[in-house]
Amino acid sequence: MRNGSTVEVLNTDAEGRIILGDAITYALQNKSDAIIDLATLTGACIVALGDAVAGLIGNNEELGNAIIASGRVAGEKIWQLPLEESYKEAMRSDVADLRNISILKGGGAIMGAIFLEHFVGKIPWAHLDIAGPAWVDKPMNLYIGKGATGFGVRTLAEYCANR
């Protein structure tokens, strides 16, 4: 990885988080004040929240609350999930710094975020898992038709406009 970490790949379908880890490292090297990432990271987030709500997981309550509030104004539904400390052990590897998936059953959306957190450090960070609302099979309203929704763009625009 870009930051020197090693990853034990237990599932080649969980490759997006590996690339996103490098992107987070790149943002840190460019002295970002905060990092907000969006990804269709896990099917587990769809299981937890369905196709209308994105999951938010992060390390900074103020940033998370601001994103949720921005989503509310923008008409995008976001629900915060915990960055559960007790789950982190399941992402540790005997042969690398971390695994790309957990050895536990369940909590997949949280586990994906725990992987990303490894690259974040202390900077305020929020991850939006948009796997559910990123695509719809039928029009949702006047501005979101069938197909890709652009979920998160309106939330980020609202967030940036108020900073």
TrEMBL record:
<dbReference type="GO" id="GO:0070006">
    <property type="term" value="F:metalloaminopeptidase activity"/>
</dbReference>
<dbReference type="InterPro" id="IPR011356">
    <property type="entry name" value="Leucine_aapep/pepB"/>
</dbReference>
<comment type="similarity">
    <text>Belongs to the peptidase M17 family.</text>
</comment>
<keyword id="KW-0645">Protease</keyword>
<keyword id="KW-0031">Aminopeptidase</keyword>
<dbReference type="Pfam" id="PF00883">
    <property type="entry name" value="Peptidase_M17"/>
</dbReference>
<feature type="domain" description="Cytosol aminopeptidase">
    <location>
        <begin position="11"/>
        <end position="18"/>
    </location>
</feature>
<dbReference type="GO" id="GO:0006508">
    <property type="term" value="P:proteolysis"/>
</dbReference>
<dbReference type="InterPro" id="IPR000819">
    <property type="entry name" value="Peptidase_M17_C"/>
</dbReference>
<dbReference type="GO" id="GO:0005737">
    <property type="term" value="C:cytoplasm"/>
</dbReference>
<dbReference type="GO" id="GO:0030145">
    <property type="term" value="F:manganese ion binding"/>
</dbReference>
<keyword id="KW-0378">Hydrolase</keyword>
<protein>
    <recommendedName>
        <fullName>Cytosol aminopeptidase domain-containing protein</fullName>
    </recommendedName>
</protein>
